[in-house]
Amino acid sequence: MTQPIPIRRGASRPRLLDLFSCAGGAAMGYHRAGFAVDGCDIAARPNYPFPQHRGDALAYLADLIESGEIRRYVFVHASPPCQHGCALTVGTNASQGWGRTHVDLVAPVRDLLDATGLPYVIEQPNGRAKIRKDLTLCGEMFGLGVIRHRNFELGGWTAARPAHVPHRGRVRGYRHGRFYDGPYVAAYGNGGGKPSVPELQTAMGITWTDLREELTEAIPPAYTEFIGRAYFAATGTLGAAA
Description:
9 strands; transferase; 7 helices; two-stranded antiparallel sheet; SAM-dependent_MTases_sf; alpha/beta; methyltransferase
């Protein structure tokens, strides 16, 4: 098991709620930007590096709103399950009759986030998820070893949209029986020339978990560090950056 990294927490940090938090890729980026982070995930995530509530994210958020406890937070990030609209589900899997029916949680998540009255972010991968693509981020923008395009809807605030950076080559791995080399690794699945766990950790910028499933589901922390700093710049507030 990878050794846990030291996390510095300070009372002066504005507090952020991280819904569908998985193992903390998004959370770590927000922490580095200057937030104190609390997570919520339905699965046990012992590698999550911050305080975390285990339970249904929608029910937890509804309870926070009803009780008024949501006022502890200044910002909410949500990464609802993406299988309903992701490119793999609606592309290859659908054409081959693979997979199963997935529930689209984006709309109910957005309704609750709007009810908080707080600024928020909804994250989804490329595909047919019905979110505004206010920001689209890519690993090449941050010098990472993955492409991993992710789209972000910004609720209640705005940020400048960065220009996309051209990719330097292919994602390493097999395609239709042929192996392609390149400067990026594929952060999903197993086999087919997929990277080792240490390669994934390096490519994603994630050191506190060595579980492949957690790494392949994560957002690189560089993405949310960028978003967190953009939020502070847009609102004229300051975080206590680590």
